[in-house]
Amino acid sequence: MIRYQELVEAVRDRAGLPDAREAREATGIVLGTLVRALPSDAREHVLGAMPSLVEAVADVGEGPRTVDPERMIQDIAGLLKRPPEQALLLARAVLDEIDRQDPDTTARIAGSLPDGALESLRGGAARWDEVTATPERPTALTADEVARELARLENWDGDPTRISRTVAVPDERVEPLAARVQEVARRRNDHAHLERGRGELTIVLRTADQQVTRPDIELAADIDHVVAEAATGGRARRG
To answer: Which is nearest to 215 in space by CA: 189, 194, 239, 195?
Structure first.
């Protein structure tokens, strides 16, 4: 049995939230979104472990079952009216505490989501101040600088507005690879735009104002390592 009040207090402490009210709201929305993504048997297991969660699930409301981690974080962010990186931090805080209190429930959740999905949801920053500080704005690269950097990367293409790489990969490995790419991006407090196709995954990097910066190039190099280590049998090509 998961002790809900203890869970809320742990989320407040783990995330460094200013008060218990915010922690309670965030915990309910994260759990409500997560439970809505589970199949009925896993949903009943989680609700049985946390009877107090029933009301939180009702607050989130009905909707289509969403099992994509990116979409789940977007849903949480929208309900909380917070940026996605803060929503991801809160998801991590909630899931880490559930795992501490009841590893069996964590295993049940993990087994009911696509490969790598739970790891993606637990991949956010550890503290509130890590996602509330205003970072220094990186300088946009020129066309010549982008071209030089692309020549050093593996199978990337693009221009000063965006760079992309398309990786051919078996359909069953698309989501695990997508989860690993976003995990690497979050470690850099960044985000990759993913376009899923039949037997392929296209990774697009750019800033919100349609520019390519040095952090995008550094993240692309990290993603190259992820693709090389994935051992999926996928063949990278330009995209």
So the answer is: 189
